[in-house]
Amino acid sequence: MTFRMHKSENRGKANHGWLDTRHSFSFARWYNPDHMGIGPLRVLNQDIIIGGSGFPSHRHHNMDIVSIVLEGALEHQDSEGNVAVIRPGEVQRMSAGSGVSHSEKNHYKDKKTEFLQIWVLPDKENIAPSYEQIQLKPTVSDRGELPILASPRGVSGGVSLHQDAYIYGGNITMGVNTTHVIKKSRLGYFHIPKGSCYVGEMLIEEGDGLYITGPETLIFTAKTDGYILLFDLIDQ
Questions:
Q1: What is the pTM for the complete model shown?
Q2: 148-234, what's its fold?
Q3: What is the DSSP pairing of strand 197-199 with strand 3-6?
Q4: Which of 41, 50, 162, 168 has CA atoms 20 to 30 A from the CA of 149?
């Protein structure tokens, strides 16, 4: 089977009052053996934090963590001395490596912040922690290439991942059409956090995901305005 659908309603769900979250893959108290990640991609959470709240300081090891803000602004602080605010159009990557503590909170007191939290396993353990944040303002153009949000060591653009993994995507307008090839011996995962989009003749609605095994030529056509995300991953 080349494709396997992952419907939005089958994601893990949790609402803690200050945080409303959806988990595409097993995370925290939600466990589903059918959704443990794909290749080195381990976590894809869509989080909404109410004004004035956030995640207190906590520790990570040996994980590349990418944050993409869809709405609002996310305030970051870590034990390496990095302090930043991440806004829509920016992509942030924190490599935990040998160990780093960080906190994330809504930068605003009176409105929500919504963001994607992505964890990718690095190909080498216990590297020195590092931080990167870049402004991309990614927009998918009609019949153009998908914008690159992250790539191995940053060689193809976007933030740098310590893994043979690419993240593509960005804002898309209704009717825009584009393609991407998942090559042989690689895996793909398509997710649409906002809007709806056809992949070939399959309709992928807001919150849905699609597991892909290469080789496969993907044809995307936006049904509505929205935001799309595609992971192109080493098969491991």
A1: 0.97
A2: Jelly Rolls (2.60.120)
A3: unpaired
A4: 50
